[in-house]
Amino acid sequence: MQKKINSIIQIRDADAKDADNLLKITKAILEKSKYLVTLPAELCLTKNEEMDWINSFKNERNSRLLLAVVNDEIVGSLSFKNHQKERLKHSGEMSISLIPTFCNKGIGSKLLEFFFDWIINTQISRVYLEVVENNTIAIKLYKKFGFEVEGI
């Protein structure tokens, strides 16, 4: 059963000044979660590289990096990279990650609601993602928002 949190969930765009905190929570998420595609040892960005990655969302057409913030603490993120090639510009890849203690509390839904409110005003008609097949909480969330299983 989903337990909502009592604090206000703020959804906002990431900024280069978030690089340190975003790196820290990403490392914490990777160390605690068994569901993410990336392993902790595979995350080897410096602060400057993280800043460049954050800024890339602002510099690429129809790409966005959203943060979920509770009590001034980043607790999760949603990234969406739109294909930059003309024939694929209608699509892009999305991913969500949350600090495990904040999972199943409505934050993923808030991120997706904010994302889909934004995407309505773009040319994007196809969003895809990768999810580990035993991540049933995430799969339930994605299906709630209309995602379908695709592939073999």
Estimate the helix proportion, in percent. 25-40%
Q: What is the global morphology?
A: globular
Give the amount of beta strand, in percent.
15-25%
Q: Tell me the span between the first and last alpha carbons.
A: 30 Å
The average pLDDT score comes to: 91
Strand order of the largest sheet: 1-2-3-4-5
Estimated radius of gyration = 15 Å
Question: Total helix count?
Answer: 4
Number of strands: 5
H/E series? EHHEEEHEH
Reported for the largest beta sheet, the result is: 5 strands, mixed
Provide the structure class.
alpha+beta
Q: Low-confidence parts lasting 5 or more residues at pLDDT below 50?
A: none
What would you note in describing this structure?
The chain has about 150 residues and is an alpha+beta fold. Helix content is about 30%, strand content about 20%. It has four helices and five strands; from the N terminus they run βααβββαβα. The chain has a five-stranded mixed beta sheet with strand order 1-2-3-4-5, with helices on both faces. α1 (about 20-30) packs across α2 (about 45-60). The longest helix is centred in the N-terminal third of the chain and has 14 residues, at about 20-30. It is globular. The protein starts with 8 loop residues before the first strand and ends in an 8-residue tail after the last helix.
